[in-house]
Specification:
It is a single chain. The chain is built from 3 helices and 7 strands, in the order E-E-E-E-E-E-H-H-E-H. The chain is of the alpha/beta class. It has one domain (about 1-150). Helix 1 (about 90-100) crosses helix 2 and helix 1 (about 90-100) packs parallel to helix 3. The chain is globular and about 40 Å long.
Length: about 150
């Protein structure tokens, strides 16, 4: 999945010690969900590379950072420790999408990622193990796209 966001609208940045918002115009950017097996460090320097797979399952390559946005709903035959059920791939993505709006740790991780995207001001790649199949990265990318154009950083 690849989403282009027109972030040329101005974003309010409230920095510490400032009472008035500072306006930061951003360039249009893209958010793309990619399979981590395809990561090539030298080729990816132009992107903000964010790992969205399960927490520290792998040694992250140079130039990639952990987001804390791993999906804690595994695909069947594994029973989900989070909700106690077995899930299909589609159910895993749907459950994670719901969690993005209710789980505080995921909301905090999304806020941190959105902040880094604004600071980076360039194209973003979200790296996971399941892309191009249905992936929890898809709702992450959609939610980031929806909220980045009117993000207020405190």
């Amino acid at each position: 999945m690849k989403i282009t966001i027109d972030t040329r609208v101005q974003i309010k940045l409230l920095s510490l010690g400032c009472t008035e918002p500072q306006i930061a115009p951003l360039e249009p950017t893209t958010i793309e969900v990619c399979n981590i097996k395809l990561y090539r460090s030298p080729d990816e320097r132009a992107f903000l590379n964010a790992y969205i797979g399960r927490w520290a399952q792998v040694q992250l390559p140079t130039g990639m950072f952990e987001t804390g946005l791993g999906n804690h709903h595994p695909i069947s035959p594994h029973r989900c420790d989070y909700c106690g059920r077995e899930h299909t791939r589609k159910e895993c993505v749907e459950e994670f999408d719901k969690d993005l709006y209710t789980a505080r740790h995921l909301q905090a991780a999304m806020w941190a990622l959105a902040t880094r995207i604004v600071q980076f001001n360039g194209p973003v790649k979200l790296w996971c193990h399941c892309s191009p199949l249905a992936c929890h990265g898809d709702p992450i990318a959609r939610r980031l796209a929806k909220h980045l154009t009117h993000l207020e950083l405190a």
